[in-house]
Structure formats: structure tokens, C-alpha cells
Amino acid sequence: MDPTFLISRMAQQQINWFDYSNFLFHQLFIKSKIFIQILWIHIPFMSGISAIFILDHKGRVLISRNYRGDVMSNVHDSFNKKMLEFDDVSAKPIIMDANGNVFFYKQVKNLYFLLVTRKNSNATLVFTFLYRLIDVFHEYFKEIEEESIKDNFVVIYELLDEMMDNGYPQY
To answer: Would you say residue 102 has pLDDT above 50?
Structure first.
């Protein structure tokens, strides 16, 4: 069916765009079992952040919060091993290990802010949350150092619970 014919028919019969889009969706997608199979197989499910770690410069955990339960509590050891493979110049902000864990990190002074996911996650969403988390910590503690993290761990856990729900940021 020619699209120009459909548009001229819509103008003659004064069909609104919403009804037309529903009609097209029904004709093209609902009746097509092939499309539904492609949709089911090829579009990955989006996932939130599985866990957050704040590590010191030696890789020891200062703060950890596991939101989804799909990563092990010692997953930061895998991150530490991966970081040994890189020098300061070749380090990348996203690292993937052999177990399917994806590490997003940002170094602030002598601390590593580490976010871990297991499934397909929106990297922009993860990094936006990471940078906003660091900004909030700057506002609360003025200086982000190991001592300020240790002294305010209760506040940090409360902030993490308020800022994230089941691995999804709450803006």
C-alpha cells in the first residue's frame, strides 16, 4: 500500500494520526509472528546497576551495596585483577571480565567508585548516576577522602538507598 495514498485518504476522511499509527502497528506488527520472534530474541533486556563499591587505593572495600543480588560480594577482586593489567594511560572507564560482569568506575583522589552490572545496561545512565553520586558526596562532605567515607558511612548508606531503588536511579 502506497504511503501517500494512505495520507491522502486520512486527509479526506479526517482520520487523526493516533488512529492511523494504531492501525499501522496492528497491520505491520501484531499480525507478524516473525516480528514478535525477532523482538523476543534480538532486543536485549535493559538492566539496572547490580552493585556499588567504594574502594580505597589498595582495592579494599570501604562501602558496598548490592541492589540486585546477581553479583558476588567479592566481585571487586575481579576488578582489582583487571586493573593490574592496565597502566594509568591505557585504563578504560568500562571493563568487562570473563564472568560477564561489567565494571564502570571513576577514580576520585585515592578512591575508586565502582558500579557493577551483569546484564545489558545503559552506559550513559550508569555514568550519569556515578557522576551525580560523586557530586552529592562533594556537597555533603566537601572533600571525598578515605577518612570522610569512613566517618560518614551511615549517611552514605542512607544516600545510596535514597538515590537508587533496585538498581535504578531515582532522579
So the answer is: yes
